[in-house]
Amino acid sequence: MWLVATFPTTTAAMEMESACAAAALPGRLIPVPRSISASCGMAWRAPEDARTVLEEMVKEHALPVEGWYYVML
After folding, report:
1. DSSP character for 50?
2. Please, is 62 exposed, middle or buried when counting C-beta atoms within 10 Å of its C-beta (0-12, 13-18, 19+)?
3. CB-based contact 64:1 (threshold 8 Å)
4. Residue 61: its H or E element
5. 68 has pLDDT over 80
């Protein structure tokens, strides 16, 4: 089970990648899984227990996340 965050734009997904790298947070960019609908074709995949810390970072950096999902990948 993985935590997957979706974004409205590719730029937002890339900003997530940059912010997570700078903060040494887990995860990586992946194509949006077919079971999820999203405006952008990229998503952030991270361990499911990382949601709280990632949500805090998203709020701190004002990143536009469309949704948070738990997906079997």
Report:
1. G
2. exposed
3. no
4. helix 51-61
5. yes
Q: Which residue has the tokens 């805090």?
A: 56
Residue whose entry in the numeric block shows the structure tokens 């974004």: 7
Which two three-digit tokens encode residue 72? 């079997």
Q: Is the dihedral of CA 66, 20, 14, 69 positive or negative?
A: negative
pLDDT in tens, 18-30: 999 999 999 999 9
As a whole number of angstroms, the distance between CA 58 and CA 72 comes to 23
> What pTM does this model have?
0.92
Which of these, 52, 73, 58, lies nearest to 17 by C-alpha position?
58
Q: Which two tokens stand for residue 62?
A: 């004002």
